[in-house]
Write a structure and sequence with these properties.
Chain A is α/β, with parallel strands linked by helices and about 475 residues long. Helices cover about 40% and strands about 15% of the residues of chain A. Chain A has two domains: about 80 residues, Alpha-Beta Complex (Outer Surface Protein A, domain 3), CATH 3.90.930; about 280 residues, TIM Barrel (Alpha-Beta Barrel), CATH 3.20.20.70. The longest helix of chain A has 23 residues. Classes of the chains: A alpha/beta (about 475), B mainly alpha (about 110).
């Protein structure tokens, strides 16, 4: 009989309990004494069934129990017995895939000049020259029609407004929402709205409109004045914090129908995660704060190097501990990076693609050009057609066959691939000039962060499992 | 599963899949039904002789054959996990006083080999 070996998994502990995160299924199982002993025994080398039974019987475990355990571990693929290599297959999703979200870039203009901006900064990929800078109401209406018509079978669809600075074209945001509501009602669908803004142009009229229309709002802000104003500046170099702070406070005070989120870009100069988090939640009143390292080529002064990423991970860990303490007491904590990852771990998401871009999500440029997502609009890379002529199915198929996790050789032995799946297409394009390249520069970071979240998940599962029920419903993204 | 406990939703789906691939068959009215096990009806229902089953109202009044017919099914058409007399060789007459199972089932003889 062939020897049993470890299958593919990541072992972790939480709340004094041992767990396996199985790959690629993304199932999480808790181990008890015997299953833990089997896993421990196979750490060094493979052993036959007889050898395992002999060894564990000598430790006082009952023979039939050992047999059951081996069968269970084998059936769950936690251990394997020379089943041989299975070539990973690339299974394309059904075509045409129903749309779920359109990110509508209502303008590519911005009143800020953040030097790290992927749309205007040194690493920009967009070439909007000669195209319209503001989306017309006509193109916006066509986009809404496109979303509603191309989402057969979906009762709920999402429309996200984006920029540039979205509010520079508030007129189109407003008319699109009114038009979309009417059209969706005619078709018996529900349409959900959200937008991202730098908050500089918020005023009472806009805030009231957003609140009344239940529009989800995310504000780009990098923390307190000294960190926000490092990069988030007006064209004359003046920091934006003093302008946006009172407007954000009014927004949060008036708009209570949905949680208001902050989105922070971390750079080499802005890495004080905990201070930023506490400022944004406690002093500004944000319900949720999400952090992401800046997308950039590694040579920029603001690029976070490997050491910097380690530092960010340490800070994430500390803030995640705070989240855990809150979760154990059933209290809300707004660190959305943890919340989002726990959601995926709880569902056991195992992604064939890193995100829905080019599949259920598309970006639409002011000109009506369709891109993989909002980060690719107005760029020759990731162009997927035009709103008037529809999705370029050939380009879409090409993207889907190249971007599938099973074509990313570098990812094949990574235990974090169910959640990462190679990472952001835009990040890959900026770094490697190829949307389907695995983002190898942050592999250690992703594994480190996924491990932190697994430990937190394990501890909550052991000490307050009721808390996890909130993740039962799969959040539509 | 006794030695692995499913924690997240995917693990529960894996567990269900394993149960359907490797699980044992079980009777339709087994006590304390294991909810996520596969359902493999064996016995009477496969030859369409309702016996273990109930009618659409949950009773036995509307069955297409009387429940007592099971007494015959036990040794004619299907396996029954209890001994019944050997109808073919040693006790060919053990049901001879039972002309109609519904009415006369009490007359079925006990046999003492």
């Amino acid at each position: 009989m062939s020897a049993y070996r470890h299958g593919e998994f990541h072992e972790f502990e939480g709340g004094g309990q041992s767990y396996l995160y199985l790959v690629p299924s993304a199932a999480i199982f808790a181990l008890e004494d015997l299953s833990s002993a089997v896993i421990g025994l196979l750490k060094e080398r493979g052993l036959t069934r007889e050898e395992i039974i002999a060894e564990l019987s000598a430790r006082g475990f009952a023979g039939p129990d050992i047999e059951d355990t081996l069968d269970e571990l084998h059936q769950a693929h936690a251990i394997s017995s020379g089943d041989g290599f299975v070539e990973p297959r690339v299974e394309s999703p059904p075509q045409p895939f129903p749309l779920q979200t359109i990110v509508m870039n209502v303008t590519n203009q911005c009143n800020l000049s953040c030097s790290y901006c992927y749309e205007y900064g040194e690493d920009r990929i967009a070439t909007p020259e000669g195209k319209t800078k503001f989306m017309s109401e006509e193109t916006a209406r066509s986009t809404v029609d496109f979303l509603l018509n191309q989402s057969p079978g979906r009762r709920m669809v999402h429309l996200t407004f984006f920029g540039g600075e979205t509010l520079l074209n508030f007129k189109v945001v407003k008319s699109s929402i009114e038009y979309a509501r009417e059209k969706a009602a005619e078709m018996g669908k529900y349409i959900d709205f959200s937008m991202t803004t730098n908050a500089t142009m918020l005023n009472s009229e806009i805030i009231n409109f957003l609140a009344e229309n239940n529009v989800g709002v995310t504000v780009s802000i990098d923390g307190p004045k000294e960190s926000n104003d490092q990069f988030r500046v007006f064209k004359n170099g003046k920091g934006s914090y003093d302008v946006i702070a009172p407007k954000i406070k009014e927004l949060i005070k008036v708009h209570r129908s949905r949680p208001i989120g902050a989105r922070v870009t971390l750079t080499a100069q802005v890495v004080d995660v905990k201070t930023i988090f506490h400022h944004l939640t406690e002093e500004m009143g944000f319900d949720e704060v999400g952090f992401a390292p800046v997308t950039t080529s590694p040579v920029r002064l603001y690029a976070i190097g490997n050491k910097g990423l380690d530092h960010v991970l340490d800070q994430f860990k500390e803030l995640a501990e705070e989240y855990l303490e809150h979760a154990l007491e059933n209290k809300h904590h707004g660190f959305s990076n943890v919340n989002d990852t726990l959601q995926e771990l709880h569902q056991g998401v195992s992604k064939a693609y890193p995100c829905g871009a080019g599949l259920g999500l598309l970006g639409v440029a002011p000109s009506g050009d369709i891109g993989l997502c909002h980060r690719f609009v107005d760029s020759p890379a990731g162009k997927l057609g035009h709103i008037d002529t529809g999705v370029d199915r050939e380009a879409q198929s090409e993207h889907l066959s190249r971007a599938h996790i099973n074509t990313k050789y570098d990812c094949h032995t990574c235990w974090a691939r169910p959640v990462c799946s190679g990472g952001c297409y835009h990040e890959a394009y900026v770094r490697y000039g190829d949307t389907s390249h695995a983002n190898l520069h942050y592999c250690d970071w992703i594994r480190g962060w996924t491990d932190v979240c697994l430990r937190i998940y394990g501890e909550i599962a052991a000490r307050n499992p009721k808390y996890l029920e909130r993740f039962d419903e799969r959040k539509a993204i | 599963m006794k030695h692995l406990k499913a924690i997240n939703r995917k693990a529960r789906r894996v567990e269900e899949f394993i149960a359907s691939e490797y699980g044992d068959v079980h009777a339709l009215q087994q006590q304390g039904p294991p909810p996520q096990r596969p359902h493999f009806p064996l016995g009477c229902s496969l030859v369409f002789s309702p016996g273990w089953e109930t009618d659409s109202a949950g009773g036995t009044a509307g069955l297409c054959q009387p429940v007592e017919r099971d007494l015959y099914d036990c040794y004619i058409t299907c396996f029954w996990p209890a001994q019944v007399p050997d109808h073919f060789n040693n006790y060919p007459d053990w049901t001879s006083k039972c002309a109609s199972a519904t009415k006369d089932w009490r007359n079925i003889d006990l046999v003492f080999p």
